[in-house]
Structures are given as C-alpha cells and as structure tokens.
Design a protein that fits this description.
This protein has about 40 residues and is mostly beta strands. Helices cover about 0% and strands about 25% of the residues.
Length: about 40
C-alpha cells in the first residue's frame, strides 16, 4: 500500500475510498489476505 512501512491501512486510505489492489497471498489459517496497491499519491 505504501513504499514505506505502515502500522495500519488507515494511515493511507479511509473507509469508503475506492482503490485497486492485487491479492498477493491468502492465509486461510490466520484468516488474512495480503494485498498490494500502487501508491499514486
């Protein structure tokens, strides 16, 4: 989501924002999805 480390996605996007992402990994055991988003800002 960013070129630098972020603690939480809310540092980059807000609820209701429309973004394009790519699914990188799905971890069924932890119920997590890893996403990649090109930062156009």
């Amino acid at each position: 989501m960013s070129n630098k480390y972020i603690k939480h996605p809310s540092e980059i996007v807000s609820v209701g924002d429309i973004v394009k992402v790519r699914v990188i990994k799905i971890d069924k055991e932890r119920q997590k999805v890893a996403l990649s988003m090109k930062n156009d800002k």
